[in-house]
What we know:
The chain is an alpha+beta fold. The protein has one domain (3-92). The chain contains three helices and four strands, in the order αβαβββα. The strands form two sheets. Strands 1-2 form a two-stranded parallel sheet. Strands 3-4 form a two-stranded antiparallel ribbon. Helix 2 (33-49) links the parallel strand 1 (23-26) and strand 2. Helix 2 crosses helix 3. It starts with a helix and ends in a 16-residue tail after the last helix.
Amino acid sequence: MTNEELITLVNELLQQGKELEWLEFKQGDATDAQRLGKYISGLANAANYNNVPFGYLVFGIKDETLDIVGTNYNYLNKKEKGSELDFYIRRNLSPSVHFQHFVCDYDG
């Protein structure tokens, strides 16, 4: 996805007006790989249950106010037990869940 497409998507998600079962906003980070894996799995299950095509976990947005505050969370630089975080989560989610990671520059 292009950055413009990501900004449009973030704006559409903000239009929901609040977090939903399949939509989670985080100001900072997921704190650890286990918790991030649980978020991904839970959001995927909730999206399926609610008959929406995707679940979303968006960093850099206050969940109480939906203010865009940005984040320094860098998923691609995270490691877990000596492995890339992405590999670790994909290997340990069971059943396997397809997910993608995107970086959006939202007004700097």
